[in-house]
User: Which sequence fits this backbone?
């Protein structure tokens, strides 16, 4: 291989490693997004909670299938319903939080807060993947790993909101509680859909 090809390969590898490092930083510490001035592709970050919700409802369908007959079509339907609802719910909660912050005279953009909330779902997705592994041993997993995963998202959301609160000690716990309650309400509403 020529030296030009080696240098080009090395530069490409460096770019990929920098991107991987940035994605890992954002996924493990979403509050970092709130300190940056650049615009974020919030609509792409919303794929993470959408996939998390899809995994959760897929596990619900599989768990119900263990107890009584549930068709594969119904499991696919509720999985896609979870995908769409996860995307729309987090986008809506991001809009609500941005509106509340605007009323409190806090300068924050929709793309920052929505991206922070969306990337906080990294922990939920990891929890649900562990739920699928646990399920291989024949145990029901949707409620345990789904709700635990949702609760894990609240810590990075709280961290980001604390950064935004700037001295308002009541702000972060109240907003994180509101976000958690809204997420649980939407999940509970979807759970009543019969398969």
Assistant:
């Amino acid at each position: 291989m020529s030296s030009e090809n080696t240098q080009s390969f090395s530069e490409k590898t460096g770019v990929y490693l920098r991107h991987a490092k940035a994605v890992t930083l954002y996924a493990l510490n979403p509050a970092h997004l709130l300190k940056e001035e650049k615009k974020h592709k919030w609509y792409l970050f919303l794929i993470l909670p959408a996939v998390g919700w899809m995994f959760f409802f897929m596990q619900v369908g599989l768990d119900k299938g263990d107890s009584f007959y549930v068709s594969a079509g119904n499991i696919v339907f509720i999985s896609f319903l979870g995908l769409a609802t996860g995307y729309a719910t987090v986008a809506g909660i991001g809009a609500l939080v941005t509106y509340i912050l605007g009323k409190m005279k806090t300068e924050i953009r929709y793309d920052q807060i929505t991206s922070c909330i969306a990337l906080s779902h990294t922990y939920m997705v990891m929890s649900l993947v562990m739920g699928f592994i646990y399920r291989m041993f024949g145990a029901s997993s949707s409620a345990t790993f789904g709700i635990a995963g949702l609760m894990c998202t609240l810590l990075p959301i709280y961290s980001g909101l604390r950064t935004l609160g700037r001295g308002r000690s009541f702000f972060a716990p109240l907003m994180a509680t509101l976000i958690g309650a809204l997420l649980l309400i939407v999940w509970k509403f979807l759970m009543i859909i019969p398969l």
Summary: The CA atoms of residues 45 and 72 lie 29 Å apart. The radius of gyration is 19 Å. The chain has a mean pLDDT of 81. The chain is about 80% helix and 0% strand.
